[in-house]
Specification:
Blueprint (H helix, E strand, L loop, with lengths): L2 E4 L9 E7 L6 E2 L4 E6 L4 E5 L4 E6 L6 E3 L3 E6 L22 H9 L2 E5 L3 E5 L1 H10 L17 H9 L33 H15 L3 E9 L1 H15 L8 H15 L5 E3 L4 E3 L5 E3 L1 E3 L2 E3 L2 E2 L7 H17 L14 E5 L18 E16 L2 E15 L5 H16 L5
Parallel strand pairs: 14-18, 18-19
Antiparallel strand pairs: 1-8, 2-4, 2-7, 3-6, 4-5, 6-8, 9-10, 11-20, 12-13, 14-17, 15-16, 19-20
Helix pairs in contact: 2-3, 6-7, 6-8
Length: 415
């Protein structure tokens, strides 16, 4: 009996996935466990394996297609078996629908909203939040997700049609076709990977729909360097504890956020959502592009625990097996981006909306300073660049918060 190949669900907030590559073609034989295709969510990539032996009778989605989770993308069976019944929108036999566990997950990600004159609509939590932020009435939409529910793609489609929103209109980027190369100049055009497109869209939205500016400050890191030297000495003696300067800076940021919870927030247009716990986002450079995983309840962790957790999520990003749930911009309440290892002395990080701020960490530079008693010397100073959304935070509070981070670094304590 033929069986469908179903687009897996990766995380409760993931509603669609993009097929990046097929490894088996229509009509090819396939065995259980064999790699069928790869797919990606917002930033994470995954493999889909065959769950049955047989022939790949038909394929319903091509490379580059964005497919709702739990929908059929192909069908496996015996040669000659009909496959049309499995095509999305067809009458798929009940015996081969998605597993019960996946159906239950689908229900968990659906909310119902009352609509005047039309009963209730079904909408995903992410789509609901996006609609609220953009000022779009979900009751005016027709859902394209499973069972007719409204998903993020529906909101994005309406937003792209210049629907009136509560935030400033996005600045249109020049169309790629408007750029022509001079005659005789050698060049090569490459299509952007899906991940790069997503990053580009998010960065453009962040800049064009918020009021961002950056303050810069430096902090004395002699205490941090002393602790780092102690850690290195321990490693040479066989210790497995490797706490980095970035771990220490993140620890100091968490302590500062505890004192200034208004920065540990999301700006929602007409309201602020201030979090009672610190969910720290960490910008991670990977071969597939920039990822920002979050460490939930980071304020509950010791310095050692925070260090281990930061390394864990960063490694997951680089290996491509990170949970998409922790990559959502709403998963973090504040983000740290460290370019110090690259020698960057100052930069203006872009906010990961709807967060209200992000800290850029720069390289260490030795600068002259008064050491007391008329003695001057060179002190190692680390650059700190705080970008904040002026719609949510004023310049004065932002500067005081940045100074608190400086204070936490210069008076560093593991407690």
């Amino acid at each position: 009996m033929a069986v469908p190949v179903i687009m897996p669900r990766q995380g409760q907030s993931v509603e669609t996935c993009i097929i990046t590559k097929w490894f088996i073609g229509k009509g090819d034989p396939v065995k259980t466990g064999e790699l069928l295709f790869t797919y990606e969510t917002d930033k994470a990539s995954f493999d889909a394996e065959a769950q049955a032996d047989g022939i790949l009778l038909d394929v319903f989605a091509a490379e580059g297609d964005e497919v709702p989770v739990l929908s059929n993308v192909a069908v496996i069976g015996k040669a000659g078996e009909p496959a049309d019944a499995f095509r999305p929108g067809g009458n798929t036999p009940p015996a081969i629908q998605a597993p019960v566990a996946e159906k239950e997950n689908e229900k968990e990600t659906v909310e119902e909203l009352p609509c005047p004159g039309s009963g209730r609509i079904r909408i995903s939590p992410r789509a609901k939040n996006m609609a609220s932020r953009l000022g779009i009435d979900p009751c005016t939409l027709t859902g394209s997700g499973p069972n007719g529910r409204i998903i993020v793609r529906d909101i994005e489609q309406i937003a792209s049609q210049s629907v009136k929103v509560t935030e400033a209109p996005a600045v249109k980027a020049p169309a790629p076709t408007s750029w022509t190369a001079p005659q005789g100049v050698a060049f090569e055009d490459k299509k952007l990977p899906n991940v790069r497109k997503i990053i580009a869209r998010a960065m453009h939205e962040s800049i064009s729909t918020s009021a961002q500016l950056t303050h810069h400050m430096s902090a004395d890191v002699r205490k941090l360097l002393a602790l780092r030297n102690t850690v290195k000495a321990g490693l040479e003696k066989g210790s497995n504890v490797n706490i980095t300067l970035n771990d220490m800076v993140c620890f100091a940021v968490i302590r500062a956020l505890e004192k200034f919870p208004e920065v540990n927030s999301h700006f929602l247009g007409d309201s602020m959502r201030t979090y009672k716990k610190v969910h720290l986002g960490l910008a991670v450079d990977t071969p597939r592009g920039l990822m920002v995983p979050s460490v939930q309840n980071a304020d509950d962790l010791s310095l050692k625990g925070l260090s281990e957790r930061l390394k864990e999520v960063a490694d997951q990003c680089r290996k491509g097996n990170v949970n998409p749930e922790i990559l959502a911009s709403t998963a973090a309440s504040f983000t740290v981006s460290n370019l110090g290892a690259y020698g960057v002395e100052m930069f203006t990080p872009i906010i990961n909306l709807p967060q209200v701020a992000i800290l850029g960490v720069n390289t260490i530079i030795h600068r002259p300073a008064d050491l007391g008693d008329g003695i001057f010397g060179f002190v190692p100073m680390i650059g700190l660049s705080l970008t904040y959304d002026h719609r949510a935070v004023d310049g004065g509070p932002a500067t005081i918060f940045l100074k608190e981070i400086k204070t936490q670094i210069e008076n560093f304590s593991e407690k």
